[in-house]
Each structure stands twice: as C-alpha cells, then as structure tokens.
Write a structure and sequence with these properties.
globular, binds pyridoxal-5'-phosphate, 19 strands
Length: 489
C-alpha cells in the first residue's frame, strides 16, 4: 500500500540535492554534534521544508494532497486535513470554521482547553451542557441525548454542537443519535476525537465520528494511532461545512514551517492502521481485558469496565483505557503515580485525586502489563497493611459544581482586570483559565463566577500535588479577575 508523502520524501533524499534552503542545519551538518549523533541521519534528512517538489500543506497539490486523500479514504471522510499543531489546532479550526463573534456553539462543560481557547478567539458564545458526573469515580463522562435535545430545543440558532467522543477515560455517548438530532436542526456536529483515532479500525470499539455521521472530527493520530507527537488529522464529511473555509482557517492557525517528519509519520501511521490496525487492535483489546481482570482481583483496586454502560451518557466504552480507582487504598491517584515512578519506573497517562489512567495500545506487551499488575499488588499489600493498623477511612469523592458564566469568555478575557489573592476571589469573575493538566479540563474559564467550592477544589488538587495551571501567576497565589460584574442573562 502506498505512502505518497513518505515515498516522495525518500525519493527526494535519494537524489541528494544541494540545499540552499532552510532548515539551516542542512541534513544535520550544521547542528550540535551530540544531538545529531543521537537523533540519527535518517531522521535529520527527513527534516525538510515546503519546496515545490515536496508540496505545501497550505495549498496541497502534490504528494501531501495524495496522502490526505488516502487518509480520507481510511477514515471514511470526504476530506482529511493534516495538522502539525496537534488536535488542539484541528479543534480550533473546527470551531472557527462554523462560529463567528456572538454566535452560539453548544459544548459540554468538561472540554479541553483548546475548545475554550477557540471560543475566546472566535468570540462565540458557549451554551454549556452539563456532563454526567460519576460520583463513584470522581470523573465526568459524556453527555446524554436528552441533554442535547433540550439544548437544541432552547438554541435552534446554534452554529454547531461539539461532542467529546470518546472522553479521555474512554467513554462514548450515543453519538449516532446525537448527530441525527443535531442534523434535524441542520446544525453541524464537531467531534473532539483526540482519544479515538483507533476506534475507526475495529468493530469492538465505539463508533468513530465519521461512522456516526458527524460533520467534522479532530483526531489525535499521535496519541493512539502510531504517528509522532503533535501530528493529528481533521476529517470532514457532508455539505454542512465548506472544505474551502476549513482549508483557509487551518492555514491561518498553522506555522508556515510545517514539519515533514510529522507529516510523513501521519502518512505512514495511516498505512499501518489500514493494513494492520484490525489485527493489532484485536490483540490490544484482549490484553486490556486480561489486565483489567487481573487488576480487579487486587484488594482495594477497582477497574471499571462494561458494567458502567447505562444507555445514557455511557453508551459505550473503549476497553483499552484502563481507569484504576485507588481511593480504597487510602491514597490519591497522584500518590500512586509517584509511587509507581519511584518504585517500578512505571509512568501512567494521568492521575487525579482518586484514579490513575493507563492506556494500552498496540505498542504494549503482556510483559509490561504484568509489571503494572505486580506493582499494584505490592502497593495494595503495603497500603492495606498500613490502613488495617489505623482506622480504615472512607474517601468521599468530591466533584465541584460547574460555575455560572456571567460574561462571554472573550469579553472576560479582554476586560479590565486586577490581580487578587486567589483565596479571596470567592464571588469574583475569573479572567483566566484554571485547570489540572492532564487532562486539561478547566476548573474555571474566563467569565465564570468563582465560588468557594471551586477554591476548595483547586486547593485540594494543589495539596495532592497535582499540576494545577492556567493563571499568569505560576504559584497560583493570585488570580486575575475582572473589575466589574455585569450578568449577561
Ligand atoms: C479531550 C482532549 N481534546 C483535545 C486534546 C488536544 O490534543 P493535542 O494534544 O493533540 O493537541 C486533548 C489532549 O490531551 C484532549 O485530552
């Protein structure tokens, strides 16, 4: 199977042209020797730029166009755009392609910061749908068809509906039903598919955005599909969204110095997924089930699976995402993340107050998952031994309410602001984002009224050692709030 972009680059390199163009390291010759040696001459020879035989991501007409067309065929899309700005760039493109200043977009509140950034850039007004909160695990899931129905009924003039499918934790809503509802209002559906590149390639995984009939999807090929970090795709289908508008907006948001290493890795990952994805994913899924079952036999560990399904917000789950609830061990997810690093050199995908998340991909082996099982068995014995000597304390899961939006995020972001002590900000309107990264879901966005619950939640996360970030003040002692308070509703 062809990889026109990768093949074209190899052909170009074989001709060994004399390069009087950037990048100035000229195949590594003008570069720090130790870095050159480590990274290797093959990788460096691929670090090229958009000279005409190599096409141009901003106006694709040659090998990039061909590679994008093959990717569209692979993902079941009408058009695929390669992104070297991650899924963040693709998400911003989706939103800015459908929404202008003052126009409404319906979004779940537990979205990634790139969605909120696009809302600030575009000046769109977010209409929030509250995600379903899982009080056992302390995480938010997807949105229900019922909640989407209500939002569409109240805002039939919305320019788009954004859905996260699947969530970071691998939970999918009934995307097909949501798409058909939105389309009955002729509203395009934009899918944040950052955590779902693989689902398109196996029928035991949730439906992909394109399979469910969505209009656009921003998909991190780099996260779970085998391409290099920062490389993603934006897939579109149907006629609700103009491909010309998408091309011009993605171009506005993209560097002119696009990395051919990243682009070639997208071309190759597409081939690998098409040729071997199904078989590799079958093995991945069975390894994930085996691991989950073994983890569930460890005292104090809970690893949710299909029992979560409820036909509402949890319509389907991706078994390759292993959520490991550790609250019954009397420690936080962050404590476990650190313990695994220090004792077993194991690195997890993320931790929060109550859980760690481990992802299983076709890059994993049973030897590695056995190490995780061994480590958590040891931790459980250690922890339950300690707990038995003390009194076993029940950990209450705590998820704060979603704050009230009193200004549009853009107005708040550009308003007159002042810096005040975070602890004293109860009742003020935030002009900044505050989030824990990963997963990067904002606790506060510009325009929201800060309340005591949010402050307690931020304090709890900082105390647990989790990476709270967003405000200009990296110490998080202060926060920028807007000077005046003027509700818009
Ligand atoms: C739900 C979600 N959407 C979007 C993104 C952004 O993806 P990228 O890192 O490819 O820009 C992430 C990244 O973690 C994410 O978790």
């Amino acid at each position: 199977m062809k990889t026109p972009l990768f093949d074209g680059l190899l052909q170009h390199i074989q001709q060994n042209p004399i390069q009087f163009h950037i990048p100035g390291h000229k195949g590594g010759a003008g570069m720090d020797p130790s870095f050159r040696e480590f990274i290797g001459s093959n990788a460096l020879s691929l670090d090229l730029i958009n000279i005409s035989p190599l096409d141009d991501l901003h106006h694709p007409d040659g090998i990039i166009k061909e590679a994008q067309q093959l990717a569209a065929d692979a993902f079941g899309a009408d058009e695929t755009f390669f992104s070297v700005q991650g899924t963040s760039g693709a998400i911003m493109t989706m939103i800015m392609s459908v929404c202008g200043p003052g126009e409404k977009i319906i979004v779940p509140r537990n979205v990634h910061k790139s969605i909120m950034s696009a809302i600030v850039f575009s000046g769109a007004t977010p209409i929030f749908i509250h995600p379903e909160i899982d009080k056992t695990l302390g995480i938010s899931h997807g949105i229900t068809v019922e909640a989407v129905k209500k939002a569409l009924h109240a805002h039939p003039d919305a320019k788009g509906l954004l859905v996260i499918n699947p969530t970071y934790f691998g939970v999918s809503a009934n995307l097909k039903a949501i798409v058909s509802l939105a389309h009955s209002y002729d509203i395009p559906v934009l899918v944040d598919e950052a955590h779902g590149v693989h689902i398109h390639f196996h029928d035991k995984l949730p439906l992909s955005a394109m399979q469910a009939g969505a209009d656009m999807a921003a998909t991190s090929v780099h996260k779970l599909g085998g391409s290099l970090t920062q490389s993603s795709v934006l897939n579109i289908q149907g006629d609700r969204v103009s491909k010309h508008r998408v091309q011009s907006i993605i171009s506005m948001l993209t560097t002119t110095s696009t990395s051919y290493i990243l682009l070639a890795s997208l071309d190759a990952a597409r081939r690998h997924l098409v040729m071997n994805g199904e078989e590799l994913l079958s093995e991945t899924i069975s390894l994930a089930y085996k691991t989950r079952n073994a983890l569930n036999r460890i005292n104090g560990i809970y690893c949710p699976g299909n029992e979560l399904l409820d036909d509402k917000a949890i319509f389907d789950v991706d078994p390759t995402k292993i959520i490991i609830s550790v609250k019954d061990l009397g420690v936080s997810g962050y404590d476990v993340e650190v313990w695994l690093r220090e004792n077993y050199q194991i690195e997890v995908e993320l931790s929060d107050l109550y859980n760690i998340l481990c992802i299983i991909t076709f890059g994993d082996t049973e030897e590695k998952t056995n190490k995780l099982i061994e480590a958590l068995t040891k931790l459980s014995l250690e922890q339950l031994g300690i707990i038995e000597k003390k009194e076993r304390k029940h950990v209450n899961v705590y998820v704060p309410n979603i704050p009230t939006l009193s200004f549009s995020p853009r107005d708040a972001f550009y308003a007159e602001t002042e810096l005040i002590v975070l602890e004293n900000s109860d009742g003020r309107v935030s002009a900044e984002f505050v989030m824990v990264y990963p997963p990067g879901i904002p606790i506060l966005i510009p325009g929201e009224i800060i309340d005591k619950e949010n402050l307690d939640y931020i304090a709890k996360n900082i105390e647990a050692g989790l990476p709270v970030q967003g405000p200009e003040d990296p110490t998080l002692k202060t926060i920028r709030v807007i000077n005046e308070r003027k509700p818009i509703v």
